[in-house]
Amino acid sequence: ETPFTAAVVAELGVRGIDELYTHCEGRDIVHPNAPLEEKPWGFREFAVTDHDGNLVTFFEPPAGYEPQPG
Prior knowledge:
Elements: E1 9-13, H1 17-26, E2 37-38, E3 44-49, E4 55-60
Parallel strand pairs: 1-4
Antiparallel strand pairs: 2-3, 3-4
């Protein structure tokens, strides 16, 4: 298994995560330890790495989710 070591880590909220995941899988950039999955808090997410070793996590909140101000 490849550990999560990255120069930069970013998290981006998206809609249409299934299509994005398919796109990234086709380019072989999905991190081996972070395939698309539903998290206990209801978000679906996966991570990719770029050529510089940066880790980018994409997440999609459930339908109807409203972020809380804070």
